[in-house]
Design a protein that fits this description.
Blueprint lengths: L2 H17 L2 H10 L5 H8 L4 H12 L4 H13 L3 H8 L19 H9 L13 H12 L6 E7 L5 H8 L3 H7 L4 E7 L3 H22 L12 H15 L4 E7 L2 H5 L6 E6 L11 E7 L5 H11 L9 H9 L4 H13 L4 H10 L16 H10 L3 H9 L9 E2 H8 L3 H13 L4 E3 L6 E3 L2 H10 L4 H15 L10 H16 L3 H8 L2 H11 L1 H10 L6 H18 L7 H5 L7 H14 L6 E3 L9 E5 L6 E6 L5 E6 L3 E6 L5 E6 L5 E6 L5 E6 L4 E5 L10 E2 L10 E2 L6 E6 L5 E6 L3 E6 L5 E5 L15 E6 L7 E5 L23 E6 L5 E6 L4 E5 L11 E10 L2 E8 L4 E5 L2 E5 L22 E8 L6 E7 L3 E6 L5 E6 L5 E6 L5 E6 L4 E5 L5 E5 L6 E6 L5 E6 L4 E5 L5 E4 L18 E4 L5 E5 L3 E5 L4 E6 L9 E3 L5 E5 ...
Parallel strand pairs: 1-4, 1-5, 2-3, 3-4
Antiparallel strand pairs: 6-8, 7-8, 9-51, 10-28, 11-12, 12-13, 13-14, 15-16, 16-17, 17-18, 17-19, 20-21, 21-22, 22-23, 24-25, 26-27, 27-28, 29-30, 30-31, 31-32, 33-34, 34-35, 35-36, 37-38, 38-39, 39-40, 41-42, 42-43, 43-44, 45-46, 46-47, 47-48, 49-50, 50-51
Helix pairs in contact: 1-4, 2-3, 2-5, 3-4, 5-6, 8-9, 11-12, 14-15, 14-16, 15-17, 16-18, 20-21, 23-24, 26-27, 27-28
InterPro entries: APAF1_C (IPR041452), Apaf_helical (IPR042197), CARD (IPR001315), DEATH-like_dom_sf (IPR011029), NB-ARC (IPR002182), P-loop_NTPase (IPR027417), WD40/YVTN_repeat-like_dom_sf (IPR015943), WD40_PAC1 (IPR020472)
GO molecular function: ADP binding
Pfam families: APAF1_C (PF17908), CARD (PF00619), NB-ARC (PF00931), WD40 (PF00400), WHD_APAF1 (PF21296)
């Protein structure tokens, strides 16, 4: 960066750090190609906005003029005009520099020209090849007077790209032949769409540089087609850069080369020398067919042994000839010689005599003589180490393992394994990830393929050895430390068993509730589900289905912390399930030792439509969609993240911080290669959907660049919806600013449409909120638009198939899978649910209301409740009666007394027997903040107590009738005397509305519960706080109880407290700790009925499911 620009940044640093939001600016800088994804991640990792701004400026100071200009433009686009004005006068211009030489060749002027043109710098390990460089320069000088082509061709790995870059690192060549500059473009294997992106990027760079030199020139929109891009490039190269050189690196296809047949000067690198035959103009070529020249290969070997080429033994030249000058083989042999510099003859003999099979085509590399070099590397190991190295065949590809894993396999100390690994690493036979402590080790795919081919017949016995060694080391139970070794065994023990053909042991492991509990707690449920899917062919189908269904429907609960009791969750499975059978046996055994477990005895009446429940985000989920092949689901929401997971198991494939505000919509392209997101931050981003892994994430518009031009700007309000056209060509977006934009997928340019509101004439330009837009299937250029106040629903039949009850809050979106077998939904309850459409049934629409009554009679249970069809249902265990009308029975005379006096809705009432008269009065409480006491016979109001400043939400009378308690929306609870009608205790401390209360049976304690899920235990005598029940254990909804605490009950011996809210909990009264939790399918439990012996519990959730729970004895 120029000193003037750098000085201006330093002078303005304080103002910039104070005001800018780095995350807003970085999207623009990534789009300009001056900031990488890794750099963005490092900046975002800073904890505060100001620290992020400081990190961005610190990084900017180490970059070039282009970064300064991009930063300036980003300030303009994000409305930081006042800050941009501070930088305007120091905007850099490229100018000739002094003729000073540098270590990497050329002058400062050469450096500037090559840097602006994107020419790569010299590699760290560099061997000069002057003969080839001079030959290329000689050919380039022929282009001084007229356009033409210079082709550098050779085998893979022969160093063509380095040679091309080195050939233009010459001051005289640039000033005499290419004063218009040198422009580098990496091509590779591209389709037409990707090629268009590359040319668009080149045109944008050329136009931007032209504008810097001539401010009167303007930037054009990106060309929308390959033909238009070719003409734009032709114009730029002929009129604005008439004497410049275009370098095309790694050309594979003649059709790609034709796009650059525009009568300009071109240097290209390729493996196919005949490619230039398809273009017009003068042509010349330079061959690099044999890879490294002998002198260069000897120089590499000399560097490895810290010697000089001329002092190398004669065998060195023979080694180079034997491996055909392959840089990779020369480097591998050189690494071996560094360890044993006296083994020249041995390595030469090994290369000459060993006749190994070629590594199969699926390997990462397939160069000549590579398999021979691999074999030579292994043979140099000691016999002991060679056997240990062969054991690495059991590892999975792309899996990094700690030394502890191999210490189990080899029965060695971890330190001894580290020493062995060091030997492998030194010989380039193993790679070490030094970013972790302890170190992690892994094999290259090529090495693993070679080992597998060499040891094909012994693979099963090797996997058996792994399993037996694990069983011996962990005979008392699996490791639970959570470190890398522990994670490896939980992830891959089933893989080793399957590869070893240990079918019975695989059954015993995977069909064990203990294994499910431990692995789910350490790794989450998705990995377990994947195991059942992957090994389904060799497992019992019925039992596998039991475990898979249990995990799929309860996975979101198993992600919770604190970790739920898996045995209790499993007791909700059908009685015929193997999961339930194992859970019941464990529950019965634990009950004998004082454990508390509940059996849902009427669960057989419930038919579940859900197939999978996932909780991918913290916060509301606004959008979820299937990939078009149905294998993946993408979701986004208020967490500002995009997450992609498997539709079969919920296993996370990708999670990224996609935007700076709520992500409102996500969509796969029809070929699933792209994934678009839009947000309240007014931006639209496109991601590479074909590389869905955290380590290989790429942004689009250019998928071959790690982070490049993936953001579309222009909307002025939140972007509500995005979708691809059926042909993958266009991306449409709609916004609250009243505009709809349609842009090419391979271009950041877009077309904007300002839409009239429905029903208005075309002359009106009234701004409306556009919520959704859809590109037509039969007419890709047609658009359908949904406005915020208009919804149109099309249906083929009016018949209702089912109510898919399960979500606990607003549902934001639904979508069918491509084959129609599944239905996807997302909600504010933080879950994504997958429903099986072939299970839907009309009876699912019948549900009970939460107001109910229960009769417990000698072990029989009778439940009375209204349903959503205004019928009264009377249910017992195994039977149901339904009445469509009710008879009103008049008690004795049938007369009634009307009690009037409350000013607002009466919340509830209770009977109060006062002492010593033993008279029974009626106690009523209301939203008006009062409690009134009534004479039962006359209807006379005996007391009118103004209890609270807010609504009275609950009241309870002590067992002896001497006290009663009230709770209120004013966040307080009070204890009253029924003799004096005065408040004897004011209970403060709740941070939310106090909704429930209950006296213990001995009258010594009072329990109160609030709307944040907190339960407090009080001493009734003096009002002191005794316990706060598990105050630290908040759930994902930031609540202690999944919602309001609506009901409380003490056990007859006052040792256990029962509470209801989002779920049901049992508490140890003395310790204030949870004994057990039951998670209903729904939520917002209103009331629970308890049998006199505290062994049976009955409640109904907000989606109408009845729960009859009995303690397991």
């Amino acid at each position: 960066m120029e000193e003037g620009a750098r000085s201006c940044l330093l002078q303005s640093r304080s103002s910039l750090e104070q005001d800018i939001r780095a995350s807003y600016l970085m999207d623009h800088m990534i789009s300009d190609g001056v900031l990488t994804g890794d750099e963005e991640d490092r900046i975002r990792s800073k904890p505060t906005r100001r620290e992020q701004a400081a990190a961005l400026l610190e990084l900017l100071l180490r970059k070039d003029n282009q970064a300064y200009i991009s930063f300036y433009n980003a300030l303009i686009r994000e409305s930081y005009g006042d800050l941009a004005s501070l930088l305007h006068n120091s905007l850099p211009l490229v100018s000739p520099e002094a003729e000073k030489s540098f270590s990497d060749g050329g002058t400062r002027h050469v450096q500037a020209v090559l840097s602006e043109g994107g020419v790569p710098q010299r590699p760290v390990v560099f061997v000069s090849r002057p003969a080839l460089v001079n030959r290329v320069r000689e050919k380039l000088y022929h282009l001084q007077k007229e356009p033409g082509w210079v082709t550098v061709f050779g085998m893979a790995g022969s160093g063509k790209s380095v040679l091309a870059a080195e050939s233009v690192r010459d001051h005289a060549l640039i000033t005499e032949c290419f004063p218009g500059g040198v422009h580098w473009l990496s091509i590779g294997q591209l389709d037409r769409a990707d090629l268009l992106v590359r040319i668009q990027s080149l045109c944008f760079r050329l136009e931007q540089q032209s504008q810097e030199k001539d401010p009167s020139s303007s930037l054009h929109r990106s060309p929308g087609s390959l033909e238009e891009a070719k003409e734009r490039l032709r114009f730029l190269m002929l009129h604005r850069y008439p004497r410049s050189l275009l370098i095309l690196d790694d050309i594979w296809d003649s059709s790609v080369l034709k796009a650059f047949d525009i009568q300009c000067r071109v240097l290209l690198t390729t493996r196919d020398r005949s490619l230039a035959d398809c273009v017009s103009g003068s042509k010349s070529e330079v061959a690099v067919e044999s890879g490294l020249e002998e002198d260069q290969a000897l120089e590499i070997l000399a560097l490895y042994v810290n010697g000089k080429p001329q002092r190398l033994p004669e065998q060195a030249r023979s080694i180079v000839r034997e491996c055909k000058g392959s840089p990779l083989v020369v480097s591998l042999v050189g690494a071996l010689l560094r360890e044993f510099p006296d083994r020249w003859a041995y390595y030469l003999h090994t290369l000459q005599q060993k006749k190994f099979k070629r590594i199969r085509k699926s390997s990462s590399y397939d160069y000549d003589a590579l398999d021979q070099a691999m074999a030579a590397s292994i043979q140099v190991l000691s016999e002991e180490h060679r056997e240990l190295y062969i054991d690495l065949t059991v590892l999975e590809k792309d899996v990094k393992v700690p030394a502890k894993v191999l210490s189990v396999l080899w029965d060695l100390e971890p330190e001894e394994v580290e020493d062995v690994f060091q030997d492998f690493v030194n010989k380039s036979l193993l790679f070490r990830d030094c970013h972790h402590r302890p170190y992690l080790y892994y094999l290259h795919d090529l090495q693993l393929d070679f080992l597998a081919e060499m040891n094909r017949s012994g693979l099963e016995s090797l996997h058996t050895k792994v399993v037996r060694q694990y069983q011996q080391r962990y005979s008392q139970g699996p490791p639970t430390s959570g470190d890398e070794e522990c994670l490896y065994w939980f992830r891959f023990l089933t893989y080793h068993m399957a590869k070893a053909n240990l079918t019975q042991e695989l059954y015993s492991l995977m069909f064990s509730l203990d294994w499910v509990r431990t692995k789910a707690q350490i790794m989450g449920p998705a990995h377990l589900i994947n195991d059942y899917v992957e090994y389904g062919a060799i497992l019992d189908k019925e039992v596998r289905g039991h475990f898979q269904e249990f995990l799929s429907l309860n996975g979101h609960q198993l992600e919770q912390r604190p970790f739920p009791d898996v045995v209790q969750l499993a007791l909700s499975q059908p009685d015929s399930s193997e999961v339930y059978r194992q859970a019941l046996l464990q529950a019965q055994e634990r009950a004998t030792r004082g454990g508390l477990y509940l059996d849902w005895v009427n669960k057989s009446s419930l038919k579940s439509l859900s197939r999978l429940v996932v909780q991918p985000h913290q916060g509301s989920i606004y959008s979820a969609c299937f990939s078009h092949d149905g294998t993946k689901i993408a979701s986004c929401g208020s967490s500002k993240t995009l997450r992609v997971f498997k539709s079969t198991s919920g296993e996370k494939l990708l999670e990224i911080q996609a935007h700076d505000d709520d992500v409102l919509c996500c969509a796969f392209s029809p070929d699933d290669h792209l994934l678009a997101t839009c947000s309240s931050d007014r931006k639209v981003k496109v991601w590479d959907g074909s590389r869905l892994s955290v380590s290989n994430l790429c942004c689009l518009w250019n998928i071959n660049k790690p982070s490049s031009q993936n953001t579309m700007f222009g909307h002025l309000e939140p972007v509500n919806h995005c979708c691809f056209s059926p042909d993958d060509v266009y991306l449409s977006t709609s916004s609250s600013d009243g505009t709809l934009k349609v842009g090419g997928v391979t271009s950041i340019r877009d077309h904007s449409f300002y839409l009239d509101s429905p029903g208005q004439s075309m002359s009106w330009k009234e701004q409306v909120c556009i919520m959704c837009c859809t590109l037509s299937v039969d007419a890709p250029h047609s658009l359908s638009v949904k406005f915020c106040q208009y919804i149109c629903v099309l249906r083929y039949t009016s018949k209702k198939m089912a109510d898919c009850s399960g979500h606990l809050s607003w549902v934001h979106g639904v979508q069918f899978s491509p084959d129609g077998s599944l239905l996807l939904s997302c909600s504010d309850d933080q879950t994504v649910r997958v429903w099986e459409t072939n299970k839907v049934h009309t009876s699912s629409a019948v549900c009970l209301k939460r107001d109910s009554d229960v009769l417990f009679n000698n072990g029989d249970i009778t439940v009375v409740a209204a349903d959503n069809r205004n019928r009264l249902q009377v249910r017992g265990l195994g039977w149901t009666h339904t009445r469509t009308h009710n008879d009103v029975w008049r008690w004795r005379t049938g007369e009634c007394v009307v009690l009037e006096g409350h000013k607002e809705q009466v919340r509830c009432f209770s009977l109060l027997t006062t002492s010593p008269s033993s008279e029974t009065h009626l106690l009523s409480w209301s939203f008006d903040g009062t409690i009134k006491v009534w004479d039962m016979s006359s209807g006379e109001r005996l007391q009118d107590l103004v209890c609270h400043q807010g609504a009275v939400l609950a009241c309870d009378v002590s067992p002896d009738g001497q006290l009663f308690a009230t709770t209120s929306a004013d966040k307080t609870a009070k204890v009253w005397s029924s003799a004096s009608w005065e408040c004897v205790c004011l209970l403060n401390g709740h941070q939310d509305c106090v909704r429930s209360c209950r006296f213990s049976w001995d009258g010594r304690r009072l329990a109160t519960g609030d709307d944040n899920g907190e339960i407090r235990l009080w001493n009734v005598k003096d009002g002191t706080l005794l316990k706060i029940c598990s105050r630290e254990n908040k759930d994902a909804m930031d609540s202690l109880h999944g919602g309001w605490v609506t009901d409380l009950h003490f056990s007859p011996d006052n040792t256990v407290l029962l509470s209801t809210g989002g779920y049901i909990k049992w508490w140890n009264v003395e310790k204030g700790e949870a004994l057990q939790t039951f998670y209903p399918t729904g939520a917002n439990l209103k009331r629970i009925h308890v049998s006199p012996d505290f062994s049976t519990f009955v409640t109904i959730d907000n989606i109408g499911i009845l729960y009859i729970l009995k303690k397991v004895e």
